[in-house]
């Protein structure tokens, strides 16, 4: 047997051992639970960037997916009537200027979720960074978003370097056009991760 095939056989044998020890018991959808040591320290990271949500123009970053077929007073002069759902792919930049350096993108859905006059969205987005130390990592934000100028939002998870992330966002609208809905939001994020 050549060295190469001996090596392949050994790797295969190890894979079998690993698979048989970590696979769930046949017929069960779970493996045994066990206690783990949690780290005594976690990492705190601050992020600062701007999100550009553009509904207007030929190349919007946010599009209406659906809305209820109703003509209520609330709907008449409302860009986001109760029940409307939007999909977005918004650039994240270093500065408030849309032409400043793009450092990531926010992708997700938001929906209008208030029946009352207090316009509220459910923001549901994965914000992935495409440059620097956190290239390829993301934070996940799922939160009620009252359409006020300054608000707090919740970071509920993340990927890559932000695995197991928890945190919060102070979100500040630096530009909001009430006619077409275009907005530029400043994000101050505090995130705790492993
Ligand atoms: C929307 O509702 C109106 C009034 O009830 C109805 O005439 C119309 O056909 C509906 N449109 C769609 C696309 O369902
Ligand atoms: C970010 O990561 C991707 C995938 O690994 C890589 O192609 C790209 O060059 C990286 N960008 C920067 C700015 O580091
Ligand atoms: C807001 O949008 C409307 C409609 O697109 C446009 O006419 C207006 O100039 C915009 N206002 C500002 C302050 O950008």
UniProtKB/TrEMBL annotation:
Keyword Glycoprotein tagged: no
Pfam family name, one: Dirigent
Keyword Signal assigned: yes
UniProt keyword annotations, A-Z: Apoplast, Secreted, Signal
Chief site of localization: secreted
Subcellular location: Secreted, Extracellular space, Apoplast
One GO cellular component term: apoplast
GO biological process: phenylpropanoid biosynthetic process
Segment forming the signal sequence: 1-27
InterPro entries: Allene_oxi_cyc_Dirigent (IPR044859), Dirigent (IPR004265)
Family in the record: Belongs to the plant dirigent protein family.
The protein's role, per its UniProt record: Dirigent proteins impart stereoselectivity on the phenoxy radical-coupling reaction, yielding optically active lignans from two molecules of coniferyl alcohol in the biosynthesis of lignans, flavonolignans, and alkaloids and thus plays a central role in plant secondary metabolism.
Subunit-level organization: Homodimer.
Full protein name: Dirigent protein
């Amino acid at each position: 047997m050549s060295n190469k095939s001996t090596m392949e056989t050994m790797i295969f044998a190890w894979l079998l051992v690993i698979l048989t020890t970590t696979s769930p018991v046949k017929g069960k959808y779970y493996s045994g639970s066990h206690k783990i040591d949690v780290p005594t320290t976690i990492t705190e990271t601050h992020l600062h960037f701007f999100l550009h949500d553009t509904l207007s123009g030929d190349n919007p970053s946010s599009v209406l997916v659906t809305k209820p077929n109703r003509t209520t007073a609330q709907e008449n002069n409302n860009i986001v009537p109760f029940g409307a759902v939007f999909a977005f792919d918004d650039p994240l930049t270093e500065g408030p200027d849309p032409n400043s350096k793009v450092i990531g993108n926010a992708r997700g859905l938001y929906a209008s979720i208030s029946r009352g006059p207090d316009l509220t969205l459910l923001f549901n987005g994965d914000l992935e960074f495409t440059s620097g130390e956190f290239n390829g990592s993301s934070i996940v934000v799922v939160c009620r978003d009252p359409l006020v100028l300054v608000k707090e939002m919740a970071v509920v998870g993340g990927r890559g370097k932000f695995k197991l992330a928890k945190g919060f966002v102070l979100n500040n609208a630096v530009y909001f056009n009430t006619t077409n809905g275009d907005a530029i939001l400043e994000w101050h994020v505090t995130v705790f991760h492993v």
